[in-house]
């Protein structure tokens, strides 16, 4: 058996309150932009859904019944609740339109904050929230809608995204400047197999470069110590504790200072892309759209300028 109120609509309650206020179907119809018969029909349907008569005609006017007076406070509460909901949703949407939440993989921390700073200079009224995490953390934030957009070097597979490449992303093989291979040229994959490596956790973009470099040649993966950040790997390489594949954009300063050496290895550098992306099908707020378009249009020139004077300028 259907619920007694299952056939009641918000529109009927709106018409009911208007008719109650004007004590006339004709005036209610004029106020609502309806015909008087349409108002009368809707009030009949509302009364039928409740099993009562709501109005009694008295000449050209109508008189509300006791049932109508009983219904009135509930209808007013529903109207007020809907109005409050609309206001709160509008306020949240306005806040969303004026803010953007951006996540970036840890590899991009060397340029990402400066890119955000340039955006804020162009759009000073926009509130920007930034999160930096490993690849898994960024994917989790995207999927749970904790952020609007992400900057990362490889698009996800576990959910669909709209991704826009804005710059090349070279990976290089680095060593301590005094490592024996630092003086070699045209180093083959087989030459590298006996050496000790430092690598990121499984699933990271940097780790995939490491694994694919050897797997593509049919070689077993060399012994590698796993570390949880590029910063730690750089420090270990500078201490001559092993070789590592790293984003060229993370080692520009150390390379310029002569603390790291980029090896002339077969298949390196490996050029990938930097992307600005978001889950497919979501509605981005105005500020998020502004940031996405800023990165797409200004990102290439920003990267050229930011890495100018280094061997990794694009």
Q: If you had to describe this structure to a student in words, what would you say it looks like?
A:
There is one protein chain. This protein is an alpha/beta fold and 314 residues long. It folds into three domains: 10-95, Orthogonal Bundle (Arc Repressor Mutant, subunit A); 99-168 and 273-306, Periplasmic binding protein-like II (D-Maltodextrin-Binding Protein, domain 2); 170-271, Periplasmic binding protein-like II (D-Maltodextrin-Binding Protein, domain 2, 3-Layer(aba) Sandwich), CATH 3.40.190. It is built from eleven helices and eleven strands. Strand 7, helix 8 and strand 8 (224-226) form a beta-alpha-beta unit. Helix 1 crosses helix 2 (25-32), helix 1 (10-22) crosses helix 3 (36-50) and helix 2 packs across helix 3 (36-50). The mean pLDDT is 90.
Give short descriptive properties of this protein.
single chain, 314 residues, alpha/beta, Arc Repressor Mutant, subunit A, D-Maltodextrin-Binding Protein, domain 2, seven-stranded mixed beta sheet, two-stranded antiparallel sheet, 11 helices, 44% helix, elongated
Radius of gyration: 32 Å
Under CATH, the topology of the largest domain can be stated as D-Maltodextrin-Binding Protein, domain 2
In whole angstroms, how far apart are the ends?
70 Å
Mean pLDDT: 90
CATH-level-4 superfamily name of the largest domain = Periplasmic binding protein-like II
Query: What is the number of helices?
Result: 11
Q: Which geometry do the CA atoms define?
A: elongated
Structural class: alpha/beta
Overall CATH architecture of the largest domain: 3-Layer(aba) Sandwich
Structural domains: how many = 3
- The CATH C-level class name of the largest domain: Alpha Beta
Helix content bin:
40-55%
Give the biggest beta sheet: 7 strands, mixed
Low-confidence stretches: none
Instruction: Let me know the number of strands.
Output: 11
């Amino acid at each position: 058996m259907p619920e007694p109120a299952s056939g009641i609509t918000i529109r009927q309650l709106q018409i009911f309150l208007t008719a109650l206020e004007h004590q006339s179907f004709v005036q209610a119809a004029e106020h609502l932009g309806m015909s008087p018969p349409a108002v009368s029909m809707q009030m009949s349907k509302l009364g039928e859904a409740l099993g009562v008569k709501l109005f009694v005609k008295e000449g050209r006017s109508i008189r509300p019944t006791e049932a109508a007076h009983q219904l009135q406070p509930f209808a007013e509460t529903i109207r007020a609740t809907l109005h409050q909901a609309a206001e709160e949703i509008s306020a949240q949407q306005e806040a969303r339109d004026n803010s953007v939440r951006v996540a970036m993989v840890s590899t991009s921390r060397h340029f990402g904050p400066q890119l955000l700073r340039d955006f804020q200079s162009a759009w000073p009224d926009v509130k920007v929230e930034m999160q930096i995490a490993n690849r898994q953390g960024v994917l989790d934030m995207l999927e749970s809608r904790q952020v609007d957009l992400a900057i990362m070097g490889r698009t996800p597979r576990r959910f669909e995204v709209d991704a826009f490449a804005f710059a090349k992303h070279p990976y290089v093989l680095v060593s301590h400047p005094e490592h024996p291979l630092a003086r070699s040229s045209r180093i083959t994959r087989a030459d590298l197999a006996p050496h000790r490596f430092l690598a990121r956790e499984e699933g990271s973009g940097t780790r995939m470069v490491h694994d694919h470099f050897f797997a593509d040649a049919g070689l077993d993966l060399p012994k590698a110590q796993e570390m949880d950040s590029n910063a730690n790997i750089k420090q270990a390489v500078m201490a001559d504790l092993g070789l590592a594949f790293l984003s060229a954009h993370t080692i520009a300063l150390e390379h310029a200072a002569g603390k790291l050496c980029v090896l002339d290895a077969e298949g390196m550098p490996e050029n990938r892309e930097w992307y600005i992306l978001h889950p497919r099908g979501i509605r981005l707020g105005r500020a998020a759209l502004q940031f996405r378009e800023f990165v797409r249009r200004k990102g290439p020139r920003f990267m050229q300028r930011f890495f100018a004077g280094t061997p990794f300028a694009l």
